[in-house]
Specification:
With 84 residues, this protein is mostly helical. It has three helices and two strands, in the order ααββα.
């Protein structure tokens, strides 16, 4: 099944996926995403301290956070800053 793409881009993608360049790119991308994840978690702890707990994912692009204090759902949805 070609999902509506022309055959030419599919052939190029297939060639890339079978090459050593793909393996190199995948390793680079894995390290880059790991570095970005770690930077985001560090920033969360630096900025929010104990107000938020986060769970570092082993994969994927999402970081789960738990807010450790009561917060107005309306303010959260509005994007307002919570103040004690």
């Amino acid at each position: 099944m070609d999902f509506g793409l022309s055959i030419f881009p599919q052939l190029i993608a297939n060639k890339f996926l079978q090459s050593a360049d793909y393996t190199t790119h995948r390793k680079f991308l894995t390290q880059e995403l790991l570095d970005r994840r770690n930077a985001m978690i560090s920033a969360l702890h630096e900025i929010l301290g104990e107000k938020v707990n986060s769970i570092a994912p082993n994969g994927g692009l999402h970081i789960w956070c738990k807010i450790n204090q009561k917060i107005s759902d309306e303010k959260l949805v509005e994007g307002g800053r919570y103040k004690k």
